[in-house]
Every structure is written in C-alpha cells, then in structure tokens.
Amino acid sequence: MRSVPPEELEKYSSAVTLSDMEIFVFPELLYALLLANIMSPLIWKWRDNPWFAKIDRMSPRKKIDRLKQYIIDHYEFNLDLDTWGLTDQQTEMNRFTPFMDAKTISASNALFGYEGDKHYFDQDIRRHFGLEKYNSTVIPYWKTETVEAMDAFVRREGYRTGAGECVSLSTLYAAALFIVCGVPLEDIFLMATPLHSQNFVAVGDGVLTNNRRIVTKNMWFNGTELTDKAQRALRHEQITMVLNNTGYVHCVYPEYTMEPAHYERFQRKIGEYLSTEITFEILANFLRQNSRFQKCFQICHDFHGKKRWITAERAYAYEHSAPYKIGDSTRGQMLEEIDNDEFYCEPIPGRICLPKLEEFFKNNPIQHYDADSMAELGKKLECNSSGKNEMLAELAKFVHLEPEFPRLAGRLRVQASDAGNKTSRPWKKLEIIPGMNREEIIAYVESMREDNRSADLAFYALRDLSRTDWAPFLKAALERNPVCIAGTADLTDDSLVQILKNMPDESIYDGPRLAQPDEVWNYRTGDGIEKAILLANVWRKRHPEEKIEISIRPDRAELHLGNHTIGFTSSKGIGTQLTLQCILEKPNDTH
Questions:
Q1: What is the 3-state secondary structure (H, E, C) of 185-218?
Q2: Residue 47 gets which letter from DSSP?
Q3: For every residue of 124-157, which 3-state class applies, written as one string?
Q4: In degrees rounded to 5, what are phi and psi of residue 366?
Q5: What's the pLDDT score for residue 577?
Q6: Cα-based torsion angle of the residue sequence 133, 134, 138, 139 in order, rounded to the nearest 10 degrees
Q7: Which of 8, 393, 405, 449 could form a disulfide with 456 if both were Cys (CB 3.0 to 4.6 A apart)?
Q8: Cβ(322)–Cβ(337) below 8 Å
Q9: 150 Cβ contact partners less than 8 Å away, ≥ 6 residues apart
C-alpha cells in the first residue's frame, strides 16, 4: 500500500471521520462511504433475512418498498449533539481553507452562515439543534456513520434499533439498493445539499430516498405534510453535489468527473419526476398542502336524494382521521361519514364547488407551461376571497420544480489523460454490477485504487488497517474524537484504565478493521487495539508532555506510558509499533 503524502493527509483522515463538513470539502468521500458499505459484510447478511425471501421475483418498485420497510423497522434518524461531540468554527476553517476559501464555506454550510432553507433560520437553527447553550462559534461534528456504527446504536441507552444521520441513511440505502434489490449503481444518484443528503433512483418514474423513507412520483405530488417536509431540501437549497459510479459534479469545484451523459440523464429523469400534469386529483392535492386557498372552495354532495354543501376546510380536516381523499373516488365515502350538522342546505356564497371542476379536467389535463390552458383554468378559479393569479402561480410551482443543480457549463472535465495532474487524480468509472459477490467487489475495488480516488479512500472509510496507511486513522483518532475525552473527564487515570479493561473485548468491526475512540466509548465495547488508542487519545490530552508508544501484536495491544505499560487483549491479528509523538508526520510502521 502507498503511504499517504502529507498534503493528502487531511483528506484521507477525513475518510475515517466522515463529518458532513469533510464530505462537502472532499466530495470523493461520499462515494467512498458507499463503497465501504458495499464491501462490509453486514448488508450482505440482509439477503438471508426471511423478509427478503423471493425478492428476486418482485418488481423493482416492490423490491424498493420491501427494503424501505426493513430500514424503517431497523433504523432511527439521529442528529443529536452528544453522539459525536463538538468542535468550533475556527478549528474547522483552519483545516479546510487550504482546500476551499472561507467565504465559500460560509456561504454553503448551515453552521458557518448559510441560510438557504429559511424554515430552519426562521426558528433559529442553533436553538433547533440545541446549540444555544454554547457560544456562537461552537458547532457539532455530525459525523456520518458506517453501517457498523449505525447498527451499534442498539448498544446505546435509549435506542432499540440502529440509527444514523441523513448521510448515513442515504449511503445505507444506496448500498442496500445495489446489494439487496439489484439496482445498478449507475441508476443510483447520491445528492447532497447544505442541510440534507438523499438519493434519486432512476427506476420507473423515479424514487427519492429521504432519510428512512422513500418518495415516489405520486407521493411527491400528494400534498401531505410528510411530503412537504421531504421536498424542503430540493425546493429551497442548492444541490451541492451529485454522484454515481462514473463520478461527481460539485457546485464549488470547477472540475467534474461524472460522465456528462450520465449527468444529463440524471437531470432529465429527476426533471420528469419533479413535474406532472394538472388534473383534478392534483388540484385537490395542491389544496391539501396550500390550505390558505381552501377558503375559495366548497364540496357539494348528494346524500339521500338531497344536495348539501360543506366548506373545503372542514372536509380536508376530516381527511386527517380517515383513509379517504377529496381528490379521488373515495371522496363520497368520506363525506358520508361526516356529521350532518357540518353541512349547509344551500350553496355557500362566493365559493367554487370543487367537484364540478372534475368535468373540466376530464380527459383534459393541463400543462403548467401552456399559457392558454392555464388561462382557461384561471377562469374556473375565480374567487371572492383569494387572488386567482396567486393561486395559479402557486399551483404551477406545486406541479413543477426545477432544482438548483451544479452546472456543467464552463467546467473542466477531468480526463484519464490528466494523470500528470498532482492535485486531482482522475476518476475512472467503477464497473461494479449486480450479480458480483462481495469478494469479487472487494478485489475489484482494490484493483481500482490507482485509477479512482473514491476506491482508494473507500478502504479508509472501511477502516481496514491491513490495506491502508495508519497515519490517517491515527490523525483522526487523536484530533477528532472529543466524546471520549469529555466523557472521561471526571475519572482518574486508574479508573479509566479499569473501565476499559472491564469493557467487552468485542469490536463493532470485523477482521483487521478498527473503531475510532468515540465509537468505542459510545458503544462501550472494543478490541484491545481500539481501547489502547482511546486511552492514548485521552492520555495525550491529559499528559501532553509524556511520550506514548503502542505495541500491537496479533493477540495483544500494549500502551507504553513513560515507565509503565498497560496491556489489552486483541483478536485483530495485526502487528505494528506506533510512536504517537511523531504519528502525525509519519508512523513507525513495521507491519
């Protein structure tokens, strides 16, 4: 394996910690995490679960629905401040300004001044995330979890399942879509915005994964509160980056690595997903989401041979507690269940009878871009209590969204012929296809490390110390693991050592893969090597003047602290000698 040069140490150590900020600055890390999850044995075990029996016989949509329910049942969304601890703006700026200027960072990241989605800033984002008790420069790490770290949440108090934040869930979904559902990687587009991460899956009409759930095209236009929340990122934020197995496009960097045909296909497919005709059902869905326009409408209804009328507001209120919808064939059933005293015996003056518009829309769907047909619709929407033009404008926004994509115009395509470029290694398409087994994929990704930066970084995200330089792992361990330091602050040195010795000796990672110190502390379990590195991290903070060495044998890890040695049992089968005093420059690696 190659030693990571000093100028790349920040990027490669970021592949270990995988904070949201690190992924924004180094976009290759997002795909590296996806590859790490694909190479992990854990998601491959899902295929043996009875829940996925006969999945190969299911339609693509049914496969994705099956996967969605499994993820909902087994993972929670988690974004608390305690999990991975806190850092501060200046520390992070100092890390990243060699790669991206401070102004760009501030304009693109919520905790450095970005205000793209006014929803959060109207309610005070720092209060929303529990940061108001700290000074204004303190920010959370918000590290992205590997599938192992997600599954290990069951070890934490208060969690009954695995958990993870939005980037963790998006890469989990993407890996599972490939492994379990057989969706080709070129059809899975990872998307990040300053406040969110999700995937667009180019299957059928398209599917958006959103945290634990999925949003189909029909769901996108159903007008429910849940869908409104799912739309927030694409409606209000710049898309920071888009990736698939051919590369990435990033909103900041002038070069891109994704094949242009793939990016054009992505834009076309998601554009079709985000646009629909205006039908009666779509109008009814629009009114569900935009309740201020409901005051223009009433529902007329025949009941026991007599006509009766109800305000749209009252009718929509009943949708919340019934499986019926105003815009489809179940409307009559819903109206029959509403108490009779909610209805009027005469039409309500100044209101449009919504069901009468069904005849207008019958066999006559309207396109938002057709000015003549929109004008005709406008005549039907004349109302005393609201502006027709405002309603039409909002309806057009409801049925058609053009996200703010990173643009290719004027950007430089990084070609394989750019091999002499020292600052940007080319991205060669990853030809990983459904049907390959895990061992074949690992061997293939290994073979691509010289040609694809994400393939190389994937082994650092995988935490495989048998295939990587130790320096990035240790730099991350000693610089970006504040939780174990804060959590042990009230313990004496002897008490801390005893707690570590009493912890189970089981790592959350298999084979020669290692957890970071905060993972060991959060989940209260770890192999001896992991415990030794955790202790070294805390000791370095408490006793910065002391020389620290770690000796690692296949069955034991020893921490040499001045005149005494502390040993832990290891089953990792790794052997090396590390001197932490100089580890950030170059470890004394003998394995």
A1: HHHEEEEEECCEEEEEECCCCCEEEECCEEEEHH
A2: T
A3: CHHHHCCCCCCCCCEEECCECCCHHHHHHHHHCC
A4: -110, 140
A5: 79
A6: -10
A7: 449
A8: yes
A9: 75, 162, 163, 164, 168, 172
d(CA 274, CA 217): 7
Amino acid symbol at 414: V
Distances (CA, A) of 156 to 129, 161, 172, 398, 523: 20, 9, 20, 41, 6
- The rounded Cα 66 to chain-centroid distance in angstroms is 20
Which among 205, 364, 203, 389 has a CA at the least distance from the CA of 296? 389
Strands 548-553 and 556-561: antiparallel
Question: Residue 564: what are its φ and ψ, rounded to 5°?
Answer: -130, 160
Q: State the chain's maximal CA–CA distance in angstroms.
A: 96
Query: What would the pLDDT profile of 529-588 be if each residue is shown by its tens digit?
Result: 999 999 999 999 999 888 899 999 999 999 998 788 999 999 999 988 777 654 444 444
Please give the full DSSP string across 417-440, using - where no structure is assigned.
GGGG-SS----------TT--HHH
- Cα distance between residue 138 and residue 185, in whole Å: 38
Cα(184)–Cα(434) distance, integer angstroms? 6
| Region of 520 on the Ramachandran plot (φ > 0 left; ψ -120 to 50 alpha; else beta) | alpha
Where helices occur in 163-310 by DSSP H, the ranges are: 166-179, 217-220, 225-236, 260-273, 280-289
Query: Structure pTM?
Result: 0.92
Q: Please report how the helices 280-289 and 225-236 are oriented relative to each other, as an axis angle in degrees rounded to 10.
A: 90
- How far is it, in rounded angstroms, from Cα 520 to Cα 514? 10
Q: Which tokens go with 455? A: 């393939």
- Torsion, Cα 460 463 464 466, to 10 degrees, reads 90
User: In this structure, are strands 162-164 and 75-77 parallel, antiparallel, or unpaired?
Assistant: parallel
Q: What are the tokens at 296?
A: 């223009």
All residues at 6 or more sequence positions from 130 whose CB lies less than 8 Å from its CB, including other chains = 80, 81
Tokens of 399: 């049925």
With cut-offs at 50, 70 and 90, classify the pLDDT of residue 133. Answer: low
The amino acid occupying position 560 is H
